[in-house]
From TrEMBL:
Coiled-coil residue spans: none
Protein name (database record): TrgA family protein
Origin species: Roseovarius ramblicola
InterPro entries for the chain: TrgA
Superkingdom in the source lineage: Bacteria
Length: 152
């Protein structure tokens, strides 16, 4: 790993901000797909934070090799954002159910978590949501690559 992979750069910051914004917008678009009366709490904030981390760690590390690689890195960061957001939200819901006494035992909790994750993934195939996520990942990658070249 080159020493510059761990250094803060403008490209990493741009990718982190871009995927945080994409996480927030994606969360807002996902809300109507859930059941009526769902308590979302910190849903948008958590997904924006996950987006920032994925932008910095996943997309930001792959910048500086050209626009095609930058766009690919943006799309990879978007997929990582969706994966970790689904994981975090299903884990959070499983923990809430455990604290309310509806789940007992570690294995039952893990099974419930994977069932919740599957339920959330089944809600994802929504045309506008997929379009925004793909376009956002493409745009974040291209802009982060431009910023990385501009301020490198």
């Amino acid at each position: 790993m080159p020493a510059t992979d761990t250094m803060p750069t403008a490209g990493k910051l741009a990718a982190a901000i871009g995927l945080a914004v994409l996480g927030w917008i994606g969360s807002e678009m996902f809300r109507p797909l859930m059941d009526e009366g769902t308590d979302f709490g910190w849903f948008n904030y958590a997904n924006a934070g996950i987006g920032a981390i994925c932008g910095w760690r996943v997309t930001g590390r792959r910048l500086g090799y050209g626009y095609a690689t930058g766009v690919s890195a943006g799309l990879t960061g978007m997929v990582a954002l969706v994966f970790w957001a689904v994981f975090a939200q299903s884990l959070n819901e499983m923990l809430q159910r455990t604290l309310n006494g509806r789940i007992t035992g570690v294995m039952n909790g893990l099974i419930e978590m994977f069932e919740l994750a599957t339920e959330y993934v089944m809600l994802l195939p929504d045309g506008p949501l997929i379009g925004v996520l793909l376009a956002g990942g493409f745009l974040v990658g291209a802009l982060a690559e431009w910023v990385d070249r501009r301020w490198a």
